[in-house]
Amino acid sequence: MSTLVKVGDLAPDFTLMATGGAEITLSSFQGRPVVIVFYPGDDSPVCTEQLNSYNEGLDEFERLDAQVLGISFQSLDSHESFSEKYGLNFPLLADIDRHVSKLYGILGPLGFPRRSVFIVDESGVIRYAHRAIAGLSYRPVSELISALNSL
């Protein structure tokens, strides 16, 4: 069952395999902000545009010491191929069983993840949450940077 985490809640911790063979645990970033980007699928048009946009804005995130993490339910092989194809410089995490998507309450009615972004502060508290109803657009880098600046 999905829960609906909201701004002010402690971010549910998780550990997932990521591109580059890393195992990533959210709580390992304690002390710095994290931008968690749930996206529906590798190589889909809007997801490709979204993740390329965040990759192009990575310097802005890094200036604020923020770690960007992309999460979707495709396999690690799919993530590796997608990341390599577009030169993405932040990890893509494989939520194959959709456990983390359920923890964050971002699964749609058919069990597919909704395009969503959460910003977790240095203490592990959610300070920004956006869940798209339709995944045809995404939150721009400027909006996420503004949210990070307000932490």
Write structural notes for this entry.
The protein has a single domain, classed as Glutaredoxin (3-Layer(aba) Sandwich). It contains five helices and seven strands. The protein is globular. The strands form two sheets. Strands 5-4-3-6-7 form a five-stranded mixed sheet. Strands 1-2 form a two-stranded antiparallel ribbon. The longest helix is centred in the middle third of the chain and has 12 residues. It is α/β, with parallel strands linked by helices and 151 residues long. The model has no long low-confidence stretch (mean pLDDT 94).
Fill in the keyword field for this structure.
151 residues, alpha/beta, Glutaredoxin, five-stranded mixed beta sheet, two-stranded antiparallel ribbon, globular
How large, in whole angstroms, is the Cα Rg? 14 Å
Tell me the total number of β-strands. 7
CATH class bucket: Alpha Beta
By helix and strand content, what is the structural category? alpha/beta
pLDDT averaged residue by residue: 94
Spatial ordering of strands, largest sheet: 5-4-3-6-7
CATH superfamily: Glutaredoxin
What's the CATH topology label? Glutaredoxin
Helix content, binned percent: 25-40%
* CATH architectural label: 3-Layer(aba) Sandwich
Helix and strand run? EEEHHEHEHEEH
Low-confidence stretches: none
Number of helices: 5
Strand content: 15-25%
Can you tell me the number of structural domains? 1
Sheet with the most strands?
5 strands, mixed
Please report the distance between the alpha carbons of the first and last residues.
30 Å
Shape category: globular
